[in-house]
Amino acid sequence: MNKNKAIGIFDSGIGGLTVAHEIAKKMPNEDLIYFGDTKHLPYGEKSEDAIVRFSKNITRFLIQHNCKMVVIACNTASALAYDIVCKECKNIAIPVNVIDPVVDFTCKTNAYKIGIIGTKNTICSNVYARKIKALNPKLKTNSLATPLLVPMIEEGFHQNKISKTILSNYLQNSEFRNIDHLILGCTHYPLIEEEIKQFYEHNIEIINSAKIVSKHVKETLDKMNLSCVKGSKAKHKFYVSDYNRSFEQSAQYFFGQRISLKQENI
Ligand code: DGL
User: What is the strand order of the sheet 6-11 is part of?
Assistant: First the structure.
């Protein structure tokens, strides 16, 4: 496989940019192709069939655009469509989901009582609790769907009265009493990580998938001898299934003013 091919990354919207940004920081020479499925956002409440179909189409698009790796930078699609992405990638690209690296990381910490927040689909799939228990049955997990957070973040609501009220309503949940670690089980949530830390008065560990997944991506490419070898500066391309200005602004916030954003109907 050509080492200088791009890394493909996708999410329903801006959430996966948190992962893409960390990948770009750790691997500044790697070209990235990002796909935000803004036409179908949010994924959190769509049917499994729909998520599988969207993920399959996006994976095909990324492979056609010559990606050596497909990072599902979305917990919902990782929970419901990892198998189809693996199938589409077979022998052409390396599939990566955001859940396994976070579960491995969490089980190596001193966590005991772990809270997990995510979309309705991610939480209903029970994937985090199941995988954590499989690695360490002694760990306690409590999961909570927090469906208002994605639209709130996509609308740019953070550090204000509305975001604080929504967050405290969710996090005051009695199941979450005495948790020592909280997994941000949605790639949108790192955008409000600071606010979540403030809610807990910095007394618990927040597990942010963006950093963990970017480390995993680097280690995987290094191990497979597929890290890029070109010396030239990386070129990043951004695609959305429905143009929207706020996506462009978020991409500019992470990657600078001169990003190229194209609409692609898949
Ligand atoms: N960022 C996504 C996730 O990690 C998707 C959120 C959504 O579209 O509902 O689950």
Answer: 94-97, 67-72, 6-11, 32-36, 236-240, 261-263
Q: Name the closest-CA residue to atom 2, ligand 1.
A: 74
Sign of the alpha-carbon dihedral angle for 124, 116, 132, 26: positive
Tell me the residue ranges of DSSP E strands in 46-145: 67-72, 94-97, 113-118, 140-145
CB of residue 106 inside a 6 A radius of ligand 1: no
How many CB atoms are located within 10 Å of the residue 35 CB?
A: 28
- Please list the rounded mean pLDDT of every run of 10 residues in the chain (266 residues): 95 96 96 97 96 98 98 98 98 97 98 98 98 98 97 89 96 95 97 97 97 98 96 92 93 89 93
Catalytic status, residue 86:
no
Q: Is the CB of 76 under 6 A from ligand 1?
A: yes
Tokens 């020479």 — which residue?
A: 29
Peptide linkage before 42 cis (omega within 30 of 0): yes
CB atoms within 10 A of CB 84: 17
Q: What predicted TM-score, i.e. pTM, was given to this entire model?
A: 0.96
Closest CA to 34 of 48, 22, 47: 22
Which residue from 2, 1, 15, 16 is spatially nearest to 71, judged by alpha carbons? 16
The ligand 1 atom nearest the CA atom of 73: 4
